[in-house]
Amino acid sequence: MSRFRLRFEKIKDKYDCIVVGAGPAGLTAALYLARFNIDTVIVSKDIGGKMAVAPLVDDYPGISEVPGVKLVELFTNHVKKYGVPMIIGEAVVDVVKEGDMWCIETEGGRKLCAYAVILAIGVEKRKLGVPGEDKFIGRGVSYCAVCDGMFFKDKVVAVVGGGDSAFSSALYLSTIARKVYLIHRREIFKAMPYYIEKAKKNPKIEIITNTVITEILGDKKVSKIKVKNTITKEEKILDVDGVFIEIGSEPPKQFLKSIGLELDENGYIAVNPDMSTNLPGIFACGDIAGGRYKYRFEQIITAAAEGAIAAKSVYEYIIKVKQSENNSLK
Length: 330
Ligand code: NAP
Known about the structure:
Blueprint: E1 14-20, H1 24-35, E2 40-44, H2 68-80, E3 86-88, E4 92-98, E5 101-106, E6 111-119, E7 124-125, E8 141-142, H3 145-148, E9 156-160, H4 164-173, E10 179-183, H5 193-201, E11 205-208, E12 211-218, E13 222-229, E14 235-239, E15 242-245, E16 249-250, H6 253-259, E17 269-270, E18 282-284, E19 289-290, H7 300-329
Parallel strand pairs: 1-2, 1-6, 2-3, 6-18, 8-15, 9-10, 9-15, 10-11, 17-19
Antiparallel strand pairs: 4-5, 5-6, 7-16, 12-13, 13-14
Bound molecules: NADP nicotinamide-adenine-dinucleotide phosphate.
């Protein structure tokens, strides 16, 4: 991952609000906070989150088709217009309460404090957990078609998964590779019908259902996968040069628990309708937010909407905190 920083002003050690994460939720939260005149900084390990690796975004209203990276640029430029400082390339490893402030620490040892923190950190890619997966990461095994697709020009690749990520990756890879297997463990797909129809019509994509990968094989790099039909139990070997794993994501449960956040049964942060959490001053939005009030529909537009709501809630929270600080000074 590239370690770069975007700085539009000197970084201070205290802000009104720290936004952790710079995907559509975090960037939108920062944009709205700036418009509410809340002194805000963004701290994130990367910029764009999942949006940055979307091959093509064709469902964001008003922009009929745009590569994910371009949409990230549009979001970022919009935030930039308001002069919000951004520290990109530093993952946040700790969030602790100190007096009336929340302080974050980054992996590089940087410490920043604020009255409120918005966690918009997204989720981590799920691993397949089969022999050969770890051994061949970067040597044929990939979790990002946009990042690594070009290494497979005119080659044969397999994509694992049955959701939107697997289908959009397969469609993208079909523009580069000679052949794309889309391997899914069930007959039914989670992906949107629009993607499924497009993939079915694509002569370069072969969809294999009721099938799991049991092993990834090769010498120095991937050359084959062992697959098993879950119904007939028949096993066979497919010759492939690459395997793209797109089987969903999981929240970083240990990190969230270490902060003291209440999580839902799947490990996502339990948020109230206003994106507040069980910890006053900590808010969450986007893919990391969950709980009984959350209707899970992971889209750029829903993440952005939650970011805007979180910003409004932080604005109201900070007004109250500052009012009570002023009263206690009287
Ligand atoms: P997802 O919707 O959770 O789909 C994950 C897929 O991987 C499922 O088909 C699942 O199978 C399969 N899977 C999970 N664990 C597996 C395992 N151990 N072995 C084999 N297969 C496994 O994840 P996603 O596709 O990454 O999408 C995440 C969210 O982002 C979704 O809400 C999606 O709509 C959204 N998204 C939207 C777009 C878009 O709108 N353009 C693009 C990308 C992603 P089962 O079906 O059997 O559970």
